């Protein structure tokens, strides 16, 4: 297994973890109150969701296509 594949798997796992924590925080009482008042999630939750999605996509692409040479 190449180094790029291992790095891709690690990024994928970290990205999925960030997505999980971001998704869990959207259900919190404070988060729901903030969304009800402002119509959007807090900046922290938004960054968890965006960062997690980006890392998961990059990790998946690196894991799949990184080992091809």
Please, could you describe this protein's structure?
The chain is mainly α. It is 83% helix and 0% strand. It has three helices and no strands. α1 (3-26) packs antiparallel against α3. The protein is rod-shaped and about 50 Å long. 17% of the residues are buried. The model has no long low-confidence stretch (mean pLDDT 91).
List the helices and strands and how they pair.
Elements: H1 3-26, H2 29-38, H3 43-65
Helix pairs in contact: 1-3
Question: What is the structure about, briefly put?
Answer:
The chain is mostly helical.
Topology order in helix (H) and strand (E) letters: HHH
- Number of helix segments? 3
> What proportion of the residues is helical, as a percent range?
over 70%
Strand tally, please?
0
The whole-angstrom Rg is 15 Å
Measured between the Cα atoms of the first and last residue, the distance is 13 Å
Mean pLDDT: 91
The helix/strand class is mainly alpha
| Total individual domains | 1
Shape: rod-shaped
Low-confidence stretches: none
Largest sheet: none
